[in-house]
Amino acid sequence: MQATISITNKWQVHIPKAARKALGIKKPGMMEIKAKNGALILTPAKKSILNYAGKYHYLLNKKNKKINIDKVRDYIDYSNL
After folding, report:
1. How far is CA 25 from CA 28, 44, 68, in A?
2. CA 10 to chain CA centroid, nearest Å
3. Hey, how many other C-beta atoms are within 10 angstroms of the C-beta on 77?
4. Quick check: helix, strand or coil at residue 20?
5. Its pTM surpasses 0.70
6. Of 48, 49, 43, 15, whose CA–CA distance to 31 is shortest?
7. pLDDT (tens digit, 9 = 90+) per residue, 49-64?
8. 45 FRET partner, CA 20 to 30 A, in 23, 24, 28, 38?
9. What is the 3-state secondary structure (H, E, C) of 60-77?
């Protein structure tokens, strides 16, 4: 696939639909860019496991109550120490 694209005065580029489809890009996100032999190479960025932190919070037990961090010692069971 080859296309000619424009660069805006803020150095932004538009990735054509055919290129997005070829790369499997379905929604906006992060890309890795490399300059090699006078060309720019774009690849979808790999997600870190930390990107998923909090994503599935709704699956946790709903009975978990919020703890006031200022009174955290009130919630600790010291009886078995």
Report:
1. 8, 8, 42
2. 23
3. 6
4. helix
5. no
6. 43
7. 766 777 776 666 666 6
8. 38
9. CCCCCCCCCHHHHHHHCC
